[in-house]
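[User]
Protein folding is very new to me. Any chance you could explain this protein sequence and its structure tokens? I have pasted everything here:
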Amino acid sequence: SLVVLFGATAGAYGAKLGSDERELILLVWQVVDLHSKKVGTLHKSLVKADNLDLSDQCREVSALTPEGLSKAEPLDRVLQQFSQLVSSDLKVLGRSSYTLCSDGQLLIRQVLHPETSKKNFPLSDCFYSFYDLRKEFHTCYPSSAAVKDQTIKTMAEYLGLGTDEAEEDFGVWQVKTMVAVIFSMLSEGCNHIFTEPETVKYKYETGPCSKSETVDSETVIRARGLPWQSSDQDIARFFKGLNIAKGGVALCLNSQGRRNGEALVRFVNSEQRDLALERHKHHMGSRYIEVYKATGEEFLKIAGGTSNEVAQFLSKENQVIIRMRGLPFTATQEDVLGFLGPECPVTGGKEGLLFVKYPDGRPTGDAFVLFSCEEYAQNALKKHKEILGKRYIELFRSTAAEVQQVVLNRYMSTPLIPTLPAPIIPVIPPPYTIATGSIRDCVRLRGLPYTAGIDDILEFMGDATGDIKPHGVHMVLNQQGRPSGDAFIQMKSADKAFMVAQKCHKKMMKDRYVEVFQCSGEEMNFVLMGGTLNRSGLSPPPCKLPCLSPPAYAAFQTAAVIPAEAALYQPQALLPTTRTPQASAAAPPTVTYYPAQAAQLYMNYTAYYPSPPVSPTTVGYIAAPPGAVAAAATATHTPILSQPGALVRMQGLPYNTGMKEILSFFQGYQYAPDDYNGLIQLSDQARSVLQAPKEWVCL
């Protein structure tokens, strides 16, 4: 028997059914006995949605009203009634089993499964198998329109069925016409047999993916905007109703091995992928998820792996994978098993553990663990941030693709300390360096569009462009290496700066007005150190001294390239004036660097005048390869370190860690004295900052 099913939502109708996440408001069905060609009672049931605001298209097509729907039963009750009434009709017809038959796949895949998943109640087994009447019709009548172009009306017209849609209620006409189409397909001329129903997977199957596999680009999508704690099961739930390929969810990681809110998902065929694209900007919790096309090559880059160790670890299928992070480097398999305890046994004992290591064999502090069921995994997740040794351990849900990406792509191919690409045109600037005096020959632009470039600023200033000092435009980046909306411009005189501030203040650039303030080099330094400047004067920076320990990632942006010799660069504009000019006259001349593709007259690239608390001096120090440091040491005839092995690298610091916290961490150990001259060529001004009280200095 077939149960012919039709439904409608409070939003889009037809080919866009379910694409707007609107709830189901109508179900109409009728049982059809394929052998006796008898039918049961036709049933129509309204469904009370949580949001009764109907779209204009819905009102026009269905003639339903919010008042009528408010008296209906909710979806879970309607589905219970559906099962009871179908069973009753089957008994009357002398049948016991049935399969659903719907007009296309949207009602089952794009409406019922996603909505019940979000509302956390299960669908009965009958909704996991159904016949697509459009496909069956095209199989029976190959000369008819393509499947994607079929509708109930076109099928009826092809068969010459004389039905009038206006004579019946919405939904009733559709079901009666579908039943008439089925009887035509069962007639002696066709004798169509319904044999291969569409299926919906009950659950997502995990599994490894080899780089040697061939992945069809027409089956892959990229999901963006995912909550960082999302697992492969969460993503599979977002695409509930669609069939994801085995091991087809690959969570993307950033360069630090952390999830970046994106995932690549591989479906069993292009039809399922096309339905997934219709879920663009559907919601996962309170967040909307963007869905785009991707390629098979991108999927293999994230999910593919060839390591025998990983393949053996992932060979146990249908296991729940948990990722552990922050393990002590001395932790053993016994330590991890003891930490997890008997309430969450690991599959295969030690064989269910996979420690992630660097190419040289050193542990990274990460490990993956296999559990045979959801209960054991949940017990393990309850130990999130419990202590092992002297460290708290983080536990997250993970995927087979993440295992391969972390073990192979990240740690097996990436050096421990990334190095910067080599740009490089060194430019010896003319004597137009940033001044530190009180002459107000500079202007500050605030509120620039984030897409604004040097050309936009020059166009914004108009005729005053000729009064800018060469290399006098300094755009400011934030800590993430993105434009902050600020820029400083050095003018040839204070009068020129005054005229620009008067003429261009609150002038429009693109769709934003830009504020222009006259300032001096000293005030510019003040702002770069974290203070604020407006027409009311200066506001002090949040700390007394500049922070000389920038986040490491600020040094590794590809947009701004720093050459090896940048370790010797000392931007005096970022240091307070505490010594006389004669004291610093002996310092070697500064060298400014610009990327090769942007060595223009007015451009002083942003990386060297970033927003606080990043210091170009320390950026240069971090980025410099050993050769540059050795060159600096040779030039000053001072050893870099007092003895070999006296330098340590700290990894995994909290992002808000400051000098005081680091020194407190090393309390009881003797750290380097103040003689940093061998590391960077310093002026007396810079040295006066570095020789500040110990609580502000760390080496």
